């Protein structure tokens, strides 16, 4: 069983890159499940129904979110009615949307998708560890294939989640920082781990934003409005192979596509 996960899609450059590359990636890797993080898809902040539908048309089976889940207010109009979109499960009870979902695979298998948000350097939320423990126990009764998108700032918190869920889920992959890490591995219990999948967005930028604006913020401390950089994009993601029936990860491979790493069909 193979999962293709695409990192945070940032603004229109990221969307354009996803539209171009996702069908080609699916043709090359032939994944059973395709998941995309879309929390920065609408001008870097949140997602709209139009954009979500485009992601599905281009080949995404499900969309995960993060701390920008509700930045675009349009999301309140559709998130409750769209089971293919998940926001962090450890948000307060009563928050619109859902924190986990199930995705049917191309071969009839089923993947449980759990979205979590870290608490270090991010707005307050319920404990992601206890939330994960509860949901994993629930979904394991239905499928052995379980994917966790850990949307967090701190590497230590992401690593802690990986070890906490070691042997209990198929993969824990981090999002949020927009910088792909090179620490992919299979933990001893059979859980694939990567601290951050990276982003699909402007390459010569600062985390997808215009360099000049971010530099002004650092140099002056004055309030500024960050805007998505309109430059050539990159694409980051990851492929995870899972053993049939057990859900244990057997391999994990990073995906990097940019000017220095051209896509090979």
Can you tell me about this structure?
- The chain is of the alpha/beta class.
- The chain has a single domain, classed as Metallo-dependent phosphatases (Purple Acid Phosphatase, chain A, domain 2), CATH 3.60.21.
- It is built from 5 helices and 14 strands.
- It has helices at residues 11-29, 49-58, 128-139, 155-164, 211-220; strands at 2-6, 8-9, 33-37, 62-64, 85-86, 100-104, 110-117, 145-151, 171-175, 185-186, 192-194, 199-202, 233-242, 249-257.
- Strands 1, 2, 3, 4, 5, 12, 13 and 14 form an 8-stranded mixed beta sheet that branches.
- Helix 1 runs parallel beside helix 2.
- The protein is globular and about 55 Å long.
- Fe cation 2 binds at residues 39, 67, 151, 176.
- The active site is at residue 68.
- Belongs to the YmdB-like family.
Share of residues in helices: 10-25%
Instruction: Tell me the radius of gyration.
Output: 17 Å
Oligomer: single chain
Q: How would you state the average pLDDT, rounded?
A: 97
Q: What is the overall shape?
A: globular
Q: How do you describe this structure in short?
A:
By secondary structure, the protein is α/β, with parallel strands linked by helices. Helices cover 23% and strands 26% of the residues.
Please tag this protein with its features:
265 residues; alpha/beta; Purple Acid Phosphatase, chain A, domain 2; eight-stranded mixed sheet; 14 strands; 23% helix; iron; YmdB-like; metal-binding; hydrolase
Layout of strands and helices, then pairs:
Elements: E1 2-6, E2 8-9, H1 11-29, E3 33-37, H2 49-58, E4 62-64, E5 85-86, E6 100-104, E7 110-117, H3 128-139, E8 145-151, H4 155-164, E9 171-175, E10 185-186, E11 192-194, E12 199-202, H5 211-220, E13 233-242, E14 249-257
Parallel strand pairs: 1-3, 2-12, 3-4, 4-5, 7-8, 8-9, 9-11
Antiparallel strand pairs: 1-13, 6-7, 10-11, 12-13, 13-14
